[in-house]
Specification:
CATH superfamily of the largest domain: CinA-like
Shape: elongated
CATH topology of the largest domain: Maf protein
Low-confidence stretches: none
Distance between the termini: 49 Å
Number of domains: 3
Radius of gyration: 29 Å
Oligomer: single chain
Strand order of the largest sheet: 12-11-13-14-15
Number of helices: 13
Strand content: 15-25%
CATH architecture of the largest domain: Alpha-Beta Complex
Mean pLDDT: 95
């Protein structure tokens, strides 16, 4: 829930959270100004008076002394705690956090700035929660493994593992969709990380067995990163010549650190003149078949590979729209050429959507083709 600096609304939010949760986390509103009211509202909602924490007050005073200044009176409120609460150390700022246990429940107040919130969560809140769960005998971890697929739609992928999904319990299997790919998230709950991983492993193996031709990676893998790894493994280099995607393929490939080891060049050959001059496409080929054609896509791939002296070449040409289409060559029609590692191949796809969507989908499909050629 997001709540403004309004006492009534903050009270409502705290009461609603305490009515349904064992743990309530609140960030923000712990500063010295009049609109910082989180401590006061927690004290009001839980019926506990605010008291001064002398250790906290001394620390705040010492911080200002270190700056060569006296502590402003307004900062005194940062040392206030609801009765029964304990402070959470803030190694960065003046505002300590607050931990208040109310029976089986706990409320934790933290500063809003990430530079303070993140280390306080890492160093104090998470250890407290682990200890609390250990004491209650309820400690468990939740681990997830995401399998990433291309070259298959979500419905078709689900159909292949329907029995696995129907029989799920712990772990669970959930389908996700990404740009040009399908994902399956396998999630397990167990007493520890090793036990959770042991639950995930056989389910992951079963899904991989059913969808082996489409799984390109897992977790934080990206298709462009996997392509880069395959090129490095082969000791190979790549060049691309793009028309309708306007450099999108090159951008995806080169956002991977270290991509200069395998990506030699990317050409944006939008005009026919550029296709001829930069990628070596024969003018008569352009005149006979048109810029958007299988023949030109193949010539782009062959030409950029030959001129760059690389092992692989990719060519993309199409009609992104919204104008420029015709009955025989409609908007969304894109041709791809792939050279190297075997005979030059061409592929034809028709993508739905507006101009941006057509371009994004064409880029994703181009990477899928590269992956398919490199993994063979």
């Amino acid at each position: 829930m997001t709540v403004g600096d309004n006492p009534h609304r903050l009270d409502e939010a705290l009461r609603a959270a305490l009515a349904r949760s064992d743990l309530v986390l609140v960030s923000g509103g712990l500063g010295p100004t009049t609109d910082d009211i989180t401590r006061e509202r927690l004290a009001e909602v839980t019926g506990r008076p605010l008291i001064v924490d002398p250790v906290g007050l001394s620390r705040i005073e010492s911080i200002f002394r270190g700056r060569g200044a006296a502590m402003p009176p307004a900062n005194r409120k940062q040392a206030m705690l609801p009765e029964g609460a304990v402070p959470i150390a803030n190694p960065v700022g003046t505002a300590p956090g607050v931990l208040l246990e109310v029976g089986r429940q706990a409320v934790i107040l933290l500063p809003g700035p990430p530079a303070e919130l993140v280390p306080m969560t890492r160093d104090s809140v998470i250890p407290y929660l682990i200890d609390r769960l250990e004491r209650s005998g309820e400690r468990a971890v939740i681990r997830s493994r995401v399998l990433r697929l291309v070259g298959i739609g979500e419905s078709a992928a689900e159909a292949r593992i329907a029995d696995i999904m129907a029989g799920q319990g712990n772990p669970t299997v959930a389908p996700l969709t990404g740009e040009g790919e399908v994902q399956f998230r396998i999630t397990a709950k167990a007493r520890g990380p090793e036990a959770a991983d042991a639950l995930i492993a056989p389910v992951e193996a079963a899904i991989r067995n059913r969808l082996a031709d489409h799984v390109y990676g897992r977790d934080d893998d990206t298709l462009e990163g996997v392509i880069g790894g395959l090129l490095i493994k082969r000791g190979a280099r790549l060049a691309v010549a793009e028309s309708c995607t306007g450099g999108g393929v090159a951008w995806r490939l080169t956002r991977v650190p270290g991509s200069s080891a395998y990506f030699e060049r990317g050409l944006v050959v939008y005009s026919n003149q550029a296709k001829a001059e930069l990628a070596g496409v024969a003018p008569e080929l352009l005149e006979r078949h048109g810029a958007v054609s299988r023949e030109v896509a193949a010539a782009l791939a062959d030409g950029v590979m030959r001129r760059a002296g690389t092992d692989f070449g990719l060519g993309v040409t199409g009609i992104a729209g919204p104008g420029g289409g015709s009955d025989c060559k409609p908007v969304g029609l894109v041709f791809f050429g792939l050279a190297g590692g075997g005979p030059t191949a061409t592929f034809e796809r028709r993508f739905a959507g507006d101009r941006s969507e057509v371009k994004r989908r064409a880029v994703a499909y181009a990477l899928e083709l590269l992956w398919g050629r490199l993994r063979a």
